[in-house]
Amino acid sequence: MDNLGLCPAGGTHDATGSGNYNLSASREGQSGWNVCNQCQSLFFAGGSSMGVCPAHSHSNVGSGNYVLPNSGAGQSGWQWCNKCQGLFFPSGTNLGACPAGGAHDDSTSGNYFLTLRGGNINDVLCNNCQNIEGLCVRLGVTEDLVAPKTAQDQGGFSLQLNAFPQPGQISQGQQLNWLQYVWYVTGGAAYGEVQYWQIGAPHSWPSGYTPVPGTTPWLPSVDTQQSLGVSLPGNVVGAGSVVEIALATDSSGNVTSAKFSLIDSVGHVSSTVVSFAAGQQYAIAAFQVNLVAPPSGQATFTSGAGSLTYSVSSGNLSVTPGAAAQCSVPYWAGQELGDQSETGETSNALYGAITPPSGSSLTQPVTTEAA
To answer: Residue 2: what pLDDT?
Structure first.
């Protein structure tokens, strides 16, 4: 973000060396954690005091209500300071500067866990809840993307554009709640796949109903896969290549087609276009992008880095925690209200901060954890 907030040690916070952490509004743990709009720090607002901020006292205006787990996956060791109410990470004997004076005091703190944005968890973007028009997602590869086949992994990977439809998008009586546009490589070949889901639907159609052939209540609309017609030995996408998913929209913001492309390091383009019939065109309210495994798997990258670019033909995208709840879009039981979309596929990819936080074109660095 452009605003790093005031630091009690002087000046603004320094995020050099920091990971990009995930905050959730819906999970098991301690609720009542807010982000201060002055110092940009996470603090506990569930007690009798709002605590101390370098700007005077914390302000939670505009903040979501976040939950911090005391166990589970993620980085442990995060502590609560009983003087300023802020969350901090001790480094050995260095407890950091406290805005209430001296060092932070963690003598009465529990042990908190924070997870990094990566794999199937990334930031959610939206256009102030308006229809997202002309969305294009590009992954510029700066280090060979390699996810080999192992005893546990099928090999290859996917770039998924996972979208929330606007409310009221109905197909065969089912309210769609998950629109997936997936570019993936496996078996040495690349594909484009589109699936429009009603996750949580009944497992069978109502008695007496005659559905469109080949559909199910979970996939009542689009379920298609097309080859890009390109060979990728070892499922490797080399440095200098670009993977792209581009959605065409009509004047109402409904997605009319999806183009899946691979531009190799010498500029050769391989692509395929999936077009949608009139009854299969829906508008998108928010989305998240994930670099994960091919469908129904997990990927372990042994190499890989790049930069994601998100652009739209109209309006502005912005990072929006809780977008699904804010925009009243449909979601399913167990989904974290737009903080985490949690596609089923996973990987060891890590996502950096999206910059700028709002605009018609945003970028986000992608790296891979050591396997």
So the answer is: 58
- Measure the N-to-C terminal CA separation of the chain; round to a whole number of Å: 29
Q: Are 54 and 184 members of one domain?
A: no
**188 and 39 both lie in a single domain:** no
**Alpha-carbon span 134 to 221, nearest angstrom:** 21
Q: Which tokens belong to 159?
A: 């770039």
Q: How far apart are CA 267 and CA 20, in angstroms?
A: 32
The two tokens of residue 332 are 């399913």
Which bin fits 288, alpha (ψ -120 to 50), beta or left (φ > 0)?
A: beta
What percentage of residues in the chain have a pLDDT greater than 90?
A: 63
Position 142 pLDDT exceeds 80: yes
Average pLDDT over residues 247-263: 97
Give SS3 for 276: coil
Helical ranges in 264-340 per DSSP H: 323-326
Last residue of a domain, one of 59, 93, 116: 116
When pLDDT is cut at 50, 70 and 90, the band that residue 321 belongs to is low
- Rounded to whole angstroms, how far apart are CA atoms 232 and 200? 36
Let me know whether 269 and 153 are in one domain. yes
- Which residue from 185, 194, 209, 205 is spatially nearest to 163, judged by alpha carbons? 194
Query: Are the C-beta atoms of residues 291 and 139 closer than 8 Å to each other?
Result: yes
Where is the domain boundary, 116, 136, 168?
Answer: 116
Interatomic CA distance for residues 237 and 263, integer angstroms: 10
Neighbours of 227 (CB within 10 A): 12
Residue 326 vs residues 62, 129, 157, 253, 321: alpha-carbon distances, Å: 12, 8, 31, 19, 9
Report yes or no: 300 and 353 within 8 Å, Cβ to Cβ.
no
Task: Write the DSSP string, 39-81.
Answer: T--EEE-SSS---EETTEE---TT---EEE-SSSSSEEEEEE-
Q: Are residues 112 and 140 in the same domain?
A: no
Domain encompassing residue 309: 125-368
- Name the domain count of the chain: 2
For residues 134 and 93, state if they share a domain. Answer: no
